[in-house]
Write a structure and sequence with these properties.
Elements lengths: L4 H4 L3 H22 L1 H9 L21 H6 L15 E5 L7 E5 L1 H17 L7 E4 L7 H13 L2 E3 L6 H11 L3 E4 L1 H13 L10 E5 L5 H11 L2 E8 L4 E7 L6 E3 L4 E6 L13 E7 L10 E7 L1 E2 L11 E2 L4 E2 L4 E3 L2 E3 L1 H11 L6 E8 L2 E9 L3 H4 L2 H19 L4 E5 L14 E3 L5
Parallel strand pairs: 3-4, 3-5, 5-6, 6-7, 18-21, 19-20
Antiparallel strand pairs: 1-2, 7-8, 8-9, 9-14, 10-11, 11-12, 12-15, 13-14, 16-17, 18-19
The protein binds 5'-O-[hydroxy(phenylacetyl)phosphoryl]adenosine.
Amino acid sequence: MIWNETKECMSRDEIYNLQSARLKKMVKRVYHNVEFYRKKMQALGLEPGDINGLEDLYKLPFTTKQDLRDNYPFGLFAVPQSEIVRVHASSGTTGKATVVGYTRRDIEIWQECVARVLSMAGIGPLDKIQVAYGYGLFTGGLGIHYGAENLGATVIPMSTGNTQKLVTLMQDFGVTAIACTPSYLLHIAETLEEAGQIDNTKLKVAVCGAEPWTENMRKQIEAKLHVKAFDIYGLSEIMGPGVAADCEFHKGLHVYEDHFIPEIIHPDTLKPCKEGEVGELVFTPVTKEALPLFRYRTRDLTSITYDKCECGRTLARISRFKGRSDDMLIIRGVNVFPSQVEAALLEMGETSPHYLMIVDRVNNLDVLEVQVEVEERFFSDEIRQLESLTKKISHVLHTALGISVKVKLVAPRTIERSQGKAKRVIDRRIIE
Ligand code: DLL
């Protein structure tokens, strides 16, 4: 059994002591093995002996994605290449890829973290799980794959790319669990619906992540596919999937604090946020051998609570992600997140969860158009219905976002489906 009470139900004092001891050891190792950090610490007048526990974490410098890019490809690795057994990389939209590496021990810890997540979702050796995250340089496919194997589940390594085959094998093999992005799972559900098979699967659990999704979207997935859906979070720089995940109470994602120290900071002042206050999530992975980072700024926006969960776990919980600070659009001076649009649409309940935001600048004024898919019948019925729904959605979005929105209702399947992370925004203002 992977669900590990000793690690997930420690007292807050025990967690503090464990993190302190691991942090102290890690800082020493990094100082001696990574020139980049040694120089940074020296510039701050810091020596490893100055970091004696968690209370000294704030003294360490932050790390950003740019630091990884500047040290491309292996400059921040803390072990010789002979100890690196795997690398992954994320392409990103701008600049060089971010390259991350793992020792054998790092891979073992990763497998255990993912196994803990899957076990928390109720998956075990009797389950057959389709892993439908991309395999390859992306951490999603291989990360979940080895975690599921570690748990003893039967793994079907689907990757992405062939939804028809995925659906056929799901039926033929009696698949009971699936791991993929939430947007891809909706596409899989559509494919099952078209085949008239949506009510005939043996699926009972879905473990979704790698992109922001709302609680309403989670509920919609549960209702459509008759499954229990869980949220899994992670990022390549820190490890990959399995840094945090939610339990059956869905009251935030438990962070595996025995390996990753979370902080929430104000993205502008870099000062710590209060418990419950939304800010930028920062992680210090204290057991990583190949790529230990000091206070990595994730850009993900969330809040944290240290209260014990109803499930009995004492691990800190981060709230469902609001988005990334770099996902945030500023439209006519107002901060807008795609997740606000998704939440408002799903709350309304009269549209599909497929939407696309297009931002443009017309006569020096920012204009937001939201395209939303609605059922075919709206197009065949009287034009009045379409108009009244358009008006209603415009009103709902105006209230939710605080800016006026041009709504365009489109027919089913108009918006491009993704098999990985969904693209929700086209910002034409950048191209000028
Ligand atoms: O997306 C790792 C992963 C794979 C997580 C499979 C979960 C499942 P990256 O490609 O490095 O790694 O992207 C990391 O994706 O900083 C978040 O912005 C976003 N993200 C990941 N999981 C969630 C989630 C993988 N559950 C970036 N909710 C992160 C919201 C998520 N955003």
